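Quick start: what a row looks like.
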Amino acid sequence: MENQNILVQINKYVKAYKHSIIILTANELGIFNELSKKGSTPLNISKKLNLNLKGLTILLNALVNLGLLKKMKNLYYLKKEYVPFLVTGGKYYIGDSLKHDLNLLDSWIKLPKVIKTGKPAREGKRSKKEHENFILAMANSSQLRINDFFNVIDLSNCKKFLDVGGGPGTFSLQAVRRNKDLIAYNFDLPETINIAKKYLSSFNESKRIKLVKGDYFKDVFGNDYDVILLSNIIHSLGEQEILKLFKKAFLSLNKEGKLIVKDFYLKENKIEPQRAVLFAINMLVNTKNGNTYTKKEVTNLLSKAGFKKTKYTFVNEDVEFIEAYK
């Protein structure tokens, strides 16, 4: 019986990719959008989305088995509880994040080679579409937890807020919503800022968000900021790169300012929590120097950069951060 349980556990992990790819494929092909309002037959879906009928039917049946779809006679429906998450425009839409996950599979499958060579699987920059999926995935992933972050951050005295590598601008948007006297600066690469401009255009509060194009290693941030945010940035960097970024942030803050370093932190044993452990693998296959770090490793780097005091806050697995003060 014990051997049987061990085999079941191994297979649970090994076969999990099948579930993932079924869902990611349905998202990529637009099947969830197609089934969001009414049921449809495989034949109608295949014609509308230009898909192979046999393959589509097998995929739809698998999605029913996984519990995302329901089937009544020959009609397939997306279950209503999944609509806010899987249909474009839904309140908690994660479709862009799922597209990014599908892109990541190309790198993850090369993990054996990465471990042998020490070199990342990804060569060169993302394609334009991959980059857009990545940036919009950041917007998707922050929607559910962004209030958890801002509920425990004090911005009452903040007038000038900088989000370095701010992507689509979701944190800058929430910052200006929370404080009417605050001006937010969303700093990122030109191609990312172009996406942020489009993403933020539908929000009235975006008038108080300054979009700044630049490379955070090469270009100046400006100065006299009350708060600088590094949200999920340091895991893509090596320790010397992080130290350089911390020093740059230190010089850009006013004397009462603080740096907030939000990321997925490892415990000191480096084998938990699972989220941070798996994210280290993701950085290994996709970046040259990236990794996940312990709180001690990050606070030591903050100290080397000149910060005198730090404070760690854990809210949930998606929201943990270190505040550093000059």
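That is the whole record. The chain has two domains: 2-84, 150-325. The chain is about 50% helix and 15% strand.
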